[in-house]
């Protein structure tokens, strides 16, 4: 209490008037309160007091938190929270300042108490706090800012920013981990954590904190990547030294906004902000199935990845807290509508019964009962125990469950050929079973009535259909075509693209728009211009292209051909085209390693088109604009096979002219991008240059096949010094 009184006096006497201009530092005697904010010097992050909102009316938080959020994003996105478990009810009674002992504190002058403190063990009171350009709040010595006494990067909450570490400091024992929020508005610690495996294995795990159950692991680090997520290796570094064992996330470009977040759902997600869309785009998620998160839906629920919401109560149960569910916290689960009959009278027995739930992954913590030979005996074993809530009987014998049923997963939309279907018998009160039986009868009457009406309507439609003079094959909604290609209706694509309002780009074949399907799948829709084909031929070409599947080729999802409209639907790639990363400043910078992998991937894709398809496909229009990048920067070639649709004459001479023009306009002396600042593998640079010269040889027979190019780039084959092509000789001899 004495410290608080001293601190109050210190603040009231020493606090000078606050400047109106933005600042990134708090010095002794200064305060931050109300709407005051610290802004990093690059303007990317802010520190201040904030409230969280909710899309559901009446569910917005009335409490305030001290935290860091991303300044360049219009929607409030906290990335660090100081007082998550001790929110502030009255903002006028809270200020951030530096205490007499040098710690950074949130003080309540009215109550005379400290709400939050850095609690650093320091020996000086001459300190200051700075919000760095990377979003790190640092407590430093005023005379030596390089001496950091405390930093928010060492105490992450639910998000990890680029440049931060996740793991354990072996010297101090500090364990950096992520903990999910309680719900969409409450910043208190939630049910899940992402942390270094405490067993000592070089891997990260996701844990349900209440039970301690590990429901996902990254796989052990093998020196290059984590076994379960190999794509992550190129964009992170794992350090296991005598001082620390941790994951280090690389610093991103100043103009790119990314974050890693442990969501309320228990999934770890990587986000990137797209200005064009004004929204966060998910670039990676683990575990991929939301229902693989342990106890996500709470007791007496069923989880299904294919429906929204994914959590639903079992029959005979109701949501325990509707407000929590609206705030995305469903861990409370469901409760019984009617209590069980637990009289266990040996004469009359329990009046309870069972409700069958097929096609489910059985809940965990089952108890095996021996000596039970029939399902009837298994049911009786459960009925004779008041704590028994369900049973299952099969080739494996009789299993019963007591108390809460957790982690039940619906598999009816999954590949049931690879997973044996189980039957779960859930115990319900007799009153509940009677109600469901009556409901079933009512539903049966409705089904019969609706089926009769539907049959009549179908006959009527068939009669109308037979009298139609013109038919279109693309008028069905999401009809699965040959080779897994989906036929879309034009109206559905128009709705998915918001009337083609989000334009991603345009080229010689038409414009491309972003769309979102009903199941939240992002797509890229290409509206073809200048087509000359009839519907039958167009469908045939779509079918032939649809069977072309390769990791370095953009996947064709579907098409539409209604009237004179021809559209192709592709997978959506969040990092867009290669030219944006090479020639624009507002996107992620690609280092040499990534560029070389892009070149290798493009070569593999072309080799597949040339040598592995039934028909020899020449792209004829390879350029950076037609090379797209997915979330892990894997290159994918777009617009392959487009010449078939447009019936244009793409000759080899045309391709050669494009290559020639590109070289004539380039700087042959500046072979390496100056932005790389010399950070390249010279052997790989030489290899790429030799291949480039071989590929533009004057004679076709002297040029290597793409399969040979792949082997050379992989280092499996040597490449000789090529003859100088005439075109390069002309460039060399031309006056400068």
Automatic annotation (TrEMBL):
It catalyses: L-seryl-[protein] + ATP = O-phospho-L-seryl-[protein] + ADP + H(+); L-threonyl-[protein] + ATP = O-phospho-L-threonyl-[protein] + ADP + H(+). It comes from Panicum hallii var. hallii. It is a single-pass type I membrane protein. Keywords: ATP-binding, Disulfide bond, EGF-like domain, Glycoprotein, Kinase, Membrane, Nucleotide-binding, Receptor, Serine/threonine-protein kinase, Signal, Transferase, Transmembrane, Transmembrane helix. The lineage of its organism: Eukaryota, Viridiplantae, Streptophyta, Embryophyta, Tracheophyta. This is Receptor-like serine/threonine-protein kinase. Residues 23-152 form the Bulb-type lectin domain. The keyword Ubl conjugation does not apply. The chain crosses the membrane at residues 443-465.
């Amino acid at each position: 209490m004495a410290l608080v009184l001293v601190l109050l006096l210190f603040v009231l006497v020493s606090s000078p008037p606050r400047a109106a201009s933005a600042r990134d530092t708090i010095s002794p005697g200064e305060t931050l309160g109300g709407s005051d904010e610290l802004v990093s010097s690059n303007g990317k992050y802010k520190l201040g007091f904030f409230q969280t909102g909710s899309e559901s009316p009446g569910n917005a938080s009335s409490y305030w938190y001290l935290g860091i959020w991303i300044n360049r994003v219009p929607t409030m996105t906290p990335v660090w929270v100081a007082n998550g478990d001790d929110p502030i009810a009255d903002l006028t009674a809270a200020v951030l300042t530096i205490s007499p002992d040098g710690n950074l504190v949130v003080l309540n002058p009215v109550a005379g108490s400290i709400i939050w403190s850095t609690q650093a063990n320091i020996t000086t009171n001459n300190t200051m706090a700075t919000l760095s350009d990377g979003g790190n709040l640092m407590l430093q010595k005023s005379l030596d800012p390089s001496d950091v006494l405390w930093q928010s990067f060492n105490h992450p909450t639910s998000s990890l920013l680029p440049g931060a570490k996740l793991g354990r400091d072996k010297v101090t024992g500090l364990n950096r981990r992520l903990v999910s929020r309680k719900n969409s508005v409450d910043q208190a610690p939630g049910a899940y954590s992402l942390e270094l495996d405490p067993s000592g294995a070089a891997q990260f795990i996701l844990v349900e904190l209440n039970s301690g159950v590990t429901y996902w692991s990254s796989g052990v680090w093998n020196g290059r990547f984590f076994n379960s997520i190999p794509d992550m290796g190129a964009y992170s570094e794992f350090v296991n030294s005598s001082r620390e064992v941790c994951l280090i996330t690389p610093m991103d470009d100043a103009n790119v906004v990314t974050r890693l977040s442990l969501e309320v759902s228990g999934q770890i997600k990587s986000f990137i902000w797209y200005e064009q869309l004004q929204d966060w785009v998910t670039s990676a998620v683990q575990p991929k199935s939301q229902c693989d998160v342990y106890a996500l839906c709470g007791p007496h629920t069923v989880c299904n990845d294919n429906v929204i919401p994914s959590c639903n109560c079992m029959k005979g149960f109701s949501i325990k807290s509707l407000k929590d569910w609206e705030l995305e916290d469903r861990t409370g689960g469901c409760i019984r509508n009617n209590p069980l009959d637990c009289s266990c009278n040996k004469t009359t027995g329990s009046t309870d019964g069972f409700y069958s739930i097929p096609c489910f992954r059985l809940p965990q913590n089952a108890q095996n009962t021996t000596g039970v030979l029939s399902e009837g005996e298994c049911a009786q074993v459960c009925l004779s125990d008041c704590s028994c809530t369900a049973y299952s009987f099969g080739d494996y014998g009789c299993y019963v469950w007591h108390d809460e049923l957790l982690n039940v997963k619906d598999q009816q939309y999954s590949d049931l050929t690879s997973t044996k279907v189980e039957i779960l018998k859930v115990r319900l009160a007799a009153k509940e079973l009677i109600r469901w039986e009556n409901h079933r009868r009512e539903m049966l009457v409705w089904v019969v009535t609706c089926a009769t009406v539907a049959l009549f309507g179908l006959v009527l439609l068939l009669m109308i259909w037979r009298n139609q003079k013109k038919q279109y094959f693309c008028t069905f909604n999401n009809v699965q075509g040959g080779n897994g290609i989906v036929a879309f209706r034009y109206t559905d694509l128009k709705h998915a693209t918001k009337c083609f309002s989000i334009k991603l780009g345009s080229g010689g074949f038409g414009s491309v728009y972003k769309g979102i399907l009903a199941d939240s799948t992002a797509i890229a829709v290409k509206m073809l211009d200048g087509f000359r084909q009839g519907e039958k031929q167009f469908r045939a070409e779509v079918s032939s292209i649809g069977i072309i599947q390769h990791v370095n080729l953009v996947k064709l999802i579907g098409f539409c051909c209604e009237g004179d409209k021809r559209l192709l639907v592709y997978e959506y790639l969040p990092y867009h085209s290669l030219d944006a990363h090479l020639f624009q400043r507002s996107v992620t910078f690609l280092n040499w390693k990534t560029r070389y992998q892009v070149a290798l991937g493009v070569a593999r894709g072309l080799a597949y088109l040339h040598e592995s398809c039934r028909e020899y496909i020449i792209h004829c229009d390879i350029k950076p604009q037609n090379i797209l990048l997915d979330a892990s920067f894997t290159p994918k070639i777009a617009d392959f096979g487009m010449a078939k649709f447009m019936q244009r004459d793409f000759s080899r001479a045309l391709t050669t002219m494009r290559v020639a023009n590109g070289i004539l306009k380039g700087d042959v002396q500046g072979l390496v991008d100056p932005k790389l600042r010399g950070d390249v593998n010279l052997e790989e640079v030489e290899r790429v240059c030799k291949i480039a010269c071989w590929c533009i040889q004057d004679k076709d027979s002297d040029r290597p096949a793409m399969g040979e190019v792949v082997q050379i780039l992989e280092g499996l084959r040597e490449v000789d010094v090529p003859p100088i092509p005439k075109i390069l000789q002309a460039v060399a001899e031309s006056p400068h």
